[in-house]
DNA sequence: GTATGTTCAAGATG
DNA sequence: CCATCTTGAACATA
């Protein structure tokens, strides 16, 4: 529908021509003047296959690989040295590390150099070709090409770094997960020392000093690997993935050469959501210009038409697309803020307005480009459902848990006429074959009131390896073989931060009909990386019990080795110079526990497999001490936007198992079988 | 709950 | 190349 417009020359043509210089677009065999980045199609397909990279560029530094088969092979048989050995790349030692000497050594060590991301590689390509500017007279000049640093911290491979054959989505995810790992780790350390809590800034400083980032350089339009609906909790996250560069300012803009001189255009805004306008209309947005507000030393004054304000004004006339990140109050978090990437908008009009403080301020009305998938609209919708569950339509069962969970678990089918999942009994917890009292007891701590991080006398802290596993916000810092929460033997209160999973589900789940994978699980709430999601409830199968019915296989949980994305979630330590806790697939030790959710279970039994999952399982103990049969808890691998299907990696099945099935996860790095 | 003050870093600018 | 300026978020405290 909107497509025809993309091919028409219009007032924005020069800008459209300018754009591909800074994106992946030149690699497409596209006719001149076609705006490739303009997403009239949903950005689900925005990922660029690696094969798009010309084999010759970058001084031959990129391998001429790129088939998905190649990637799956490396993903399956991951070995750190082997993988990186395939990635020769020009390495520059990291020399700056803002948090002092702790981590960085020049490249003198045994580890292999590692590629930051293909996005950076493409940036280099873009910068090299920028001089040629063969695309026409309107090439955008890159104003300040920055050196591309390679990161090499303490001689260790950095946890989540994408390889050169990562898709843009994987590159962004990898950078983002690295940031989150660093942030959680620094928060944990800060809380131990009761020091400053700006772990977001610390993580950001390390990321930028090491140049671990995606989509370096400014661009108009979509950012490769960033999808509409993606959620964030800190401004620094937007910065390191290349969505919105300024760490504070709400307006990101760039200068460009349009053939007839330099001009500035706005490229991204963060609408902080302070001004709640009409509820239902998420497609228009009124944004206020910046400046003029009173500062400590200055008086209030009228806003001036300069910098960001000027760029917005120029963008009104150029009619270029502007990315919009919308901030909302998130009632679920204490600080209560969440940022949602809402896709591309255009400015319709601007005007001056006198504020209540009596100063003139600029206002801009933005209209969302049609044909994009919902972003902020989903947030508004799910928040409404959370406030009043009866506003959720298409419900075929209002509470699958029959009141067992704090919040009802509804069942919806928007696909076909299935009436609901087959019968089972809902239970909130796993059920052991033997009474808990007969199992080995878990040791407890003697802490009064609550356990505190850094308390050497807290037995639970010591049991967990010295640190409490959760931050004060209840977010898991790092994967571990087992996590020991405080339990009955502990003297601390139920408010202790070391009691998370035992408090049960805190989200509004819905079981929904998928198009091709039966029933699936998703959530109305946003879930931040590291947050506890749910337990795998069911019956623990006694090892003595044999001859299981095959039909039960679909609902059996076993601790099989998950893929790389999950395994690397525990790689925070080496980022701050501590010993890596990475467990390679070779070293992976499965637990004997098997849980069947065929007869009894909870929402977890509806979680489908994905080779690129957003959740992972983690053994947790709190009501007994038998480490071979822990409870299995699911946590978020990365931030999960509302209404995103929750998936985990079912793991690699050993050869000769009758259980292998064709995988339908649809991930670009799908292993094919499960 | 909310009002206010302090501190912070990236990138533009001169 | 470097110093200065511009921004408002995040959080602590009142």
UniProtKB/TrEMBL annotation:
It is found in: Chromosome; Nucleus. The keyword Metal-binding does not apply. One of its GO terms (molecular function) is histone methyltransferase activity. SMART domains: PreSET, SET, SRA. Residues 98-139 are annotated as: Disordered. Residues 659-674 form the Post-SET domain. Residues 443-504 form the Pre-SET domain. GO terms for cellular component: chromosome; nucleus. It comes from the Eukaryota. Residues 221-368 form the YDG domain. Residues 507-651 form the SET domain. Keywords: Chromatin regulator, Chromosome, Methyltransferase, Nucleus, S-adenosyl-L-methionine, Transferase. Its main location: nucleus. The keyword S-adenosyl-L-methionine applies. GO terms for biological process: methylation. This is Histone-lysine N-methyltransferase. It comes from Triticum aestivum. The lineage of its organism: Eukaryota, Viridiplantae, Streptophyta, Embryophyta, Tracheophyta.
């Amino acid at each position: 529908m909107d497509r025809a417009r993309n091919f028409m020359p219009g007032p924005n043509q020069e800008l459209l021509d300018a754009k591909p210089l800074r994106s992946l677009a030149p690699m497409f065999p596209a006719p001149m003047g076609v705006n490739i980045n303009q997403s009239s199609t949903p950005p689900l397909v925005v990922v660029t296959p690696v094969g798009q990279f010309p084999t010759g560029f970058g001084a031959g530094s990129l391998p001429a690989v790129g088939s998905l088969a190649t990637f799956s092979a490396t993903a399956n048989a991951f070995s750190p040295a082997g993988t990186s050995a395939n990635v020769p790349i020009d390495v520059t030692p990291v020399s700056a590390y803002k948090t002092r000497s702790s981590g960085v050594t020049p490249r003198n060590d045994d580890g292999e150099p590692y590629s930051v991301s293909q996005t950076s590689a493409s940036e280099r390509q873009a910068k090299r070709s920028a001089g040629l500017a063969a695309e026409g007279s309107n090439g955008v000049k890159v104003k300040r090409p920055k050196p591309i640093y390679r990161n090499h911290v303490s001689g260790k491979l950095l946890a989540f770094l994408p390889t050169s054959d990562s898709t843009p989505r994987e590159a962004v995810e990898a950078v983002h997960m690295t940031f989150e790992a660093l942030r959680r780790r620094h928060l944990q350390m800060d809380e131990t020392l009761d020091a400053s809590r700006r772990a977001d800034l610390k993580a950001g400083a390390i990321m930028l000093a090491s140049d671990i980032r995606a989509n370096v350089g400014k661009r108009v339009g979509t950012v490769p690997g960033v999808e509409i609906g993606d959620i964030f909790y800190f401004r620094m996250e937007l910065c390191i993935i290349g969505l919105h560069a300024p760490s504070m300012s709400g307006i990101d803009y760039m200068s460009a050469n349009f053939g007839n001189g330099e001009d500035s255009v706005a490229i991204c805004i963060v609408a902080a959501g302070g001004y709640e306008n009409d509820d239902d209309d998420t497609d228009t947005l009124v944004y206020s210009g910046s400046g003029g507000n009173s500062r400590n030393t200055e008086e209030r004054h009228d806003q001036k038409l300069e910098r960001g304000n000027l760029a917005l004004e120029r963008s009104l006339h150029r009619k270029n697309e502007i990315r919009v990140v919308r901030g909302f109050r998130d009632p679920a978090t204490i600080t209560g803020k969440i940022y949602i990437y809402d896709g591309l908008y255009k400015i319709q009009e601007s005007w001056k307005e006198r504020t209540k403080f009596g100063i003139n301020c600029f206002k801009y009305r933005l209209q969302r480009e049609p044909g994009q998938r919902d972003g902020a609209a989903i947030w508004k919708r799910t928040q409404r459902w959370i406030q009043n569950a009866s506003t959720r339509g298409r419900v075929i069962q209002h509470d699958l848990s029959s009141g067992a969970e704090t919040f009802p678990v509804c069942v919806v089918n928007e696909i076909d006429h299935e009436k609901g999942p087959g019968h089972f009994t809902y239970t909130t917890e796993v059920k052991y074959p033997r009474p808990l009292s007969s199992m080995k007891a878990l040791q407890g701590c003697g802490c009064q009131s609550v356990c505190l991080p850094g308390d050497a006398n807290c037995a639970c802290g010591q049991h967990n390896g010295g640190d409490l596993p959760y931050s004060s916000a209840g977010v898991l810092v790092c994967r571990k073989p087992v996590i020991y929460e405080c339990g009955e033997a502990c003297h601390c209160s139920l408010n202790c931060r070391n009691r998370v999973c035992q408090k049960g589900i805190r989200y509004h789940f819905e079981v929904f009909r998928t198009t091709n994978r039966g029933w699936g699980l998703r959530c109305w709430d946003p879930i931040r990386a590291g947050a506890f999601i749910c337990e795998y409830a069911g019956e623990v199968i006694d090892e003595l019990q044999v001859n299981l019915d095959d039909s039960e296989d679909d609902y059996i949980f076993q601790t099989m080795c998950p893929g790389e994305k999950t395994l690397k979630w525990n790689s925070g330590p080496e980022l701050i110079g501590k010993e890596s806790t990475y467990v390679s697939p070779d070293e992976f030790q499965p637990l004997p526990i098997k849980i069947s959710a065929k007869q009894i279970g909870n929402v977890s039994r509806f979680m489908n497999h994905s080779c690129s999952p957003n959740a992972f399982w983690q053994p947790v103990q709190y009501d007994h001490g038998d480490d071979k049969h822990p409870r299995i808890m699911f946590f978020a691998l990365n931030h999960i936007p509302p209404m995103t299907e929750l998936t985990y990696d079912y793991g690699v099945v050993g050869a000769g198992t009758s259980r292998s099935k064709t995988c339908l996860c649809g991930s670009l790095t799908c292993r094919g079988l499960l």
